[in-house]
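SAMPLE LOG
Freezer: B-3
Tube label: C17
Construct: single chain, 507 aa
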Amino acid sequence: MQQKIIILDFGSQTTQLIARRIRELNTYCEIVPYNKFPHHDPDVIGVVLSGSPFSVYDEKAFRTDVAPLIGKYPLLGICYGAQMMAYQAGGAVEPADSREYGRAHLTDIDVDNPLFRDIKPGAQVWMSHGDTITALPEGYHTIASTEKVAIAAYQKAGTKLWGVQFHPEVFHSECGTQILSNFVIGICGSRCTWSAESFIESTVQSLREQLGNDKVVLGLSGGVDSSVAAVLLNKAIGKNLTCIFVDHGLLRKNEFSDVLHDYECLGLNVVGVDASEHFFSELAGVSDPERKRKIIGKGFIDVFEQEAHKLSDVRWLAQGTIYPDCIESLSITGTTIKSHHNVGGLPEKMNLRLCEPLRLLFKDEVRRVGRQLGMPEHLITRHPFPGPGLAVRILGDITPQKVAILQEADHIFIQGLRDWNLYDSVWQAGVILLPVQSVGVMGDERTYEQAVALRAVTSTDAMTADWARLPYDFLAEISNKIINRVKGINRVTYDISSKPPATIEWE
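STRUCTURE (predicted):
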């Protein structure tokens, strides 16, 4: 039995964060649409109801009848989830005098309540709501307040049903992890058996049962997800796995040879394909970002299919799809938003079945699995890199000369982050080649060359990101090295845009 917490998603931006926090408690959980509760799953030990962008009294608000769940599972409603449960039972939810957003402190805590074990009065929590519960239903009682919110948390007497107006899952709720632990471990009774080691053991066994003696092909990107998937599959089926690593000519400097060397050291069976001439030919004269992506996507499929057909008796296509990809691919209404298949269309086209050994994991969990598998740290901690590569970091048309210039500048920036011990504190970094030229002076000569922008962000899951506050001395050194060493660049800028409203990549 794999114990699990079910998180009912009502559309909150922090639903994934709830799941991450519960996973950090070594407890498995799944996010499902608010109206898709798995009533017949015997492994469910508790339910969390997420927040939502709606008000409970909106006509289009997402609602589900929690009555069948009360008494069967412990329930914890967060923000909208708490309001909805109270509203359904006859309580009152009304617009607050002013939207409360930010830090608050718990007062009048019922310290004997199991949800608030080891929580002290004055504990900081994070509020983000425009509505508030103004009256509780009969049989419900308040177990905590804040300076502005009388009913900050409640429980239904004689049941394992709780609601909190604040967000325990966010970093700024300093007592949030303890509250979630009280619910997941203390109330739901989690045995805390979800770990990288247990995942590897159970997944290797299930892969052997699923795949048998079938042969599998996997498209490697050099990133952590596909690399960990490959090592995990190699542990399960060994020589029956063949990996294909396609170089579209838009990788970082020396990346093709370096990554192939890493994979050989891991004992993987890898076919390296240099298809750079094909991609440069297809991209010639193309400036539109979406056209670039489609050309590269189609080109990758064509090259991958050509190489895969050289193998005999392949039955499965493996991918490094992870849990956020699966969540994003299915909206809470059950409608597909976008496909995250790295080689979209290939399973059907080649009559292959799909194998996704990491589809239950978040990115940080993938890294923990990689470490447990003994993979080298530089592979595990690699920054995310876009599938189209440097094509989406060159604004305008793509040429081998532009790629070479960008590769040199990018190498200086990334190596500098490593040398200054800044690499691991940044989620993603790179250089963007701008389609502008500027006047400069080198020696006694006037120059008219290209400008680049450095981009570095901090994040936890790439859904939101903030620009990294890199030291001025570091930026000065990198700027000086790029301008002096990379012929064709005479100006360096630093991008200080956050996501939203900007995106991490420029295209």
